[in-house]
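Summary for the funding panel

The consortium committed to producing paired sequence-structure records for every protein in the target list. Below we show the first two records in order, beginning with the earlier of the two.
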Amino acid sequence: MSYEDVKKVWMNGRLVDFADAKIHAFSHVFHYGSAMFEGARVYKTKNGSAAFRLDEHIKRLFDSCKVYRMEIPYTREEFKEAIFDTIRANGFDECYIRPVVYRGLGALGVNPFKSPIDVLIAVWKWGKYLGDEAIEQGVDVCVSSWNRMAPNTFPAMAKATGNYLNSALIKMEAVVNGFTEGIALDNGGRISEGSGENIFLVYGGRILTPPLAGTILPGITRDTVVTLARDAGYTVTEQQIAREMLYLADEVFFTGTAAEVTPIRSVDRIPVGNGRRGPVTERLQKDFFGLLRGDLEDRYGWLTPVPTESAVSR
C-alpha cells in the first residue's frame, strides 16, 4: 500500500490536496466511530481502466447509511461521478477506491443527529492485500478467540467503521501469533468470516459458505464468486458451518475486494487438503482474474469503464 502518488482527495464536493484532507478533532466520527465506508477497485483491463461492480458498491454504501439514519447529500450518480473525478485527478489507471460517509463537526454526545453528514472519497494504489505470493501459495490462518458480534448488537450488514475494531482485534491476534489472518466464529461458535474477508470451503465436491445470518458482511466479491462457481457447474450452498470443517475441508479460501480470491493453506497449523492451492480455488481465480483483465467476456456487465473526462465537461 502506498500513498506517495496520491495528489487529491474529494471532500464534500471539491477536490483538495492530499495534505489538506483533514477533519476536525471534535468531529462526531472521531469520538464515536460514526462512519460508513466502502472499498472498490479499478483494474487496468485490455480495454482500458474499469471499476469492478461499482454500482453495487455504491448501493451497499447507501444501504449501510440507511441503517444508521445517515442521508447522503448526493445522488448515486453524483457519487459515481465524484469517484471518477477523484481517479482522474490522481492519474491512476489502477487503484483502490475508499468512499467514507461520516458525521462531522456538530454536537458531541452519543446522539448523532446534530452533526452534519460529510463525505470523502480517497483512491490509492494497493496491491495484493494478503501478500503478492498469497494468490498462488495461500496463507496460514488461525481461528480467533474473538467472535463476530451477536445479532441485534451491531448490524453486520452495514459496512461501518466501528465494526472494524472487532476486525482489528482478530487481525492483531493473528499477526502476533505468526499467522497472516484470523477467522472469526459467530456467537454460536460457527464459522463467520475473516477480519476483512468472506470465507468459502470446498468439501465433498460442494462449495460451502456461511449465510448472511452468520453475522457476515454481504461481500460483493463473495457474490461474484458464488455466481462464477455456479456458472462453472459447482454446487454452492450457503449454510451454517461448524469450526471443525476448517480442518476437514479439501480447500478453503478468502474472498474480498482487497483480498480478491486468496487460498488458505493451513488453519491453526493444520494443512488444508494438501497444504496448497486446490483445483477449485485455482479455477475460480482463473475465471475471476480473467474477467478483470478482459480475457473473458464481461457477461454480467460488472466492469464500468472509467471515463476519460468529466460528465460536466462532456
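The next record, for a separate protein in the list, is shown here:
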Amino acid sequence: MTPESGPPEGPRPGLSPYRGQSLGLASRHGKERAIARPFRIALGLELVLAEGFDTDSLGTFSGERPRANSAERTCLLKAQAAMEHTGLDLGLASEGSFGPHPALPFLACGSECMTFVDRHRGLVIQERLLARRTNFDHRSVGPGDDLGDWLARVGFPRHGLIVRPHLPGGDPLILKDLADHRALERAIHRCAAGSSDGRAWLETDMRAHRNPTRMASIRQLAFRLARRIATPCPACTAPGWGTVGTVTGLPCSWCGHPTSLTAKEVFACGACGHRQELPRSDGLRVADPGQCPLCNP
C-alpha cells in the first residue's frame, strides 16, 4: 500500500478501557438492535436499556411533542437521562433529523447524531452522519388515488407511514403503525374525512423501529462512534480521539491554487484539548481543475 492510497499516519484503536462495563442507552424504538453489536465488538460494552425514560418527552418525529432543543442538545439530554435511569456512569443516545440535502436541496437526506457520555472521566464524545440514503418523503392524497409507484419508492409496508388530515379542522388525528395496504386505505379515508379539503397527508415514519433504512444508518454511525471511542489521544491516551472539523484549500492539480475542497482533517481530544491537522484520509492530495476558481472560473 502506497502512502497516497493508504490512511494518514495517526493513532490506531487500542485496548478498550471500557471492556466488561455496561452502557445505558436511551431508546424506545429498538435502536439497540443496531447499536449493541458495534459497541460490543469495538469496546466490549454491553447495552442496558433505560426502561423508565420516555425519549418522546424530548420531541417526536410526528410533531405531537415538538423538539425544544437542537439535535445535539437533545442527544446529550437523552444520554444523561440514560445514566440517571440505569444508575450507570456511561450513557448513550442518538437523534436524527430529515430534510433537504445541504449541498443538493432537491434531494432528501438524514442527519444522524450519536452521543456517548462518560461521567467518571468527564467525557462527551459525539459523532455525526449525513445519511444520503433515506426514504424520507411526504405527499397529499385523496381517497382512491393510485399510490402504487410512490408506496414502492418509500418501501411500504416494510417501512412505516404516518397519516393525518391534510387540513385538520378539529382535534389532531395521527395514525401510525399501519400493517398493510388495507389498513393504509382505511387510514386515508378516515383522515380525508377529517380534513377541510377532503384530502389526507402521508409522510414516511422516520422512527427507527419502523424504518429499516434509517436503522442501517444508525448502525453505521454506531460503528463510527465506537471506533472513535476506542482510539486514544496521542497526547494523554484518553478515549475519543477523532475528527472535529476540516481545513479547506486543496490545491488545484494544474495551477496549485487553493480550492474550496478539504485539504486537511482536524483531529482533537475532548479531554486534554490536543489538536492535530492531518492530510485527508481518502488520500486525495490535489483537486480536479474543474473545482478551481482560476482554471474553471
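Regarding this second record: Residues 135 and 153 are 7 Å apart (CA to CA). The chain has three domains: 17-135+210-229, 138-205, 233-297.
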